[in-house]
Amino acid sequence: MVRFSILFLGFLTLISVVLTACQKDENVTQTTAQVTDSTKISTIPSSGNFLASKGTLTVKLKDSTYTFDAEQDSIAFVNINIDGEQYYGVTAINKAHTVSFGISSSGAPIDDEASYISGAQFLLKGTGKKNLEYTLIQSEQPQRSGNIAIEKYNQDTTLAKGSFHTTLATDTKATTPKYDVEGSFELKIK
After folding, report:
1. Which candidate, 72, 78, 18, places its Cα nearest to that of 48?
2. DSSP H helices in the chain
3. What's the CA gap between 116 and 49, in Å, rounded?
4. Which of these, 21, 77, 122, 180, is most buried using a 10 Å CB contact count?
5. Any idea where the domains of the chain sit in the sequence?
6. Quick one: pLDDT at residue 143?
């Protein structure tokens, strides 16, 4: 059951990345609903998913550092509700669609608070048909999966700022090498 939940979260993260990439490539703007009162008009996002307009997401894996830039790549901060459980995270895909990353945590993003990682996936398009996929190592102890630390969320033009660390592997076998992954994000909205 836990394995299915993780695969399902990974699948949702991947879908978010693809949708975000398509939005960025087609220059589609977020759908908003207009709310009016007698003195002002404000726009409210129709969902809890936000496409960053500026900022970066940096992921360090092995000896490499991958940087996604919101001005050319697609980076989104997502809030998802699955069967009454709330999750949030960051997803990204580069403009060439050769590198994508997604990481999520249960609960809600709260300033100056860290929460345990629920799902993570890092995909690299290889040569030919071979792709390389890293996924979260599951543990009976959630604190061993790593965490996301939110410094700032939804303040002024800052969509989200924070850092994360976790452990990923290319397989679930006990003998498969495990890799520490760390990164940071500072995302802005218009």
Report:
1. 78
2. 2-25
3. 20
4. 77
5. 2-27+48-188
6. 67
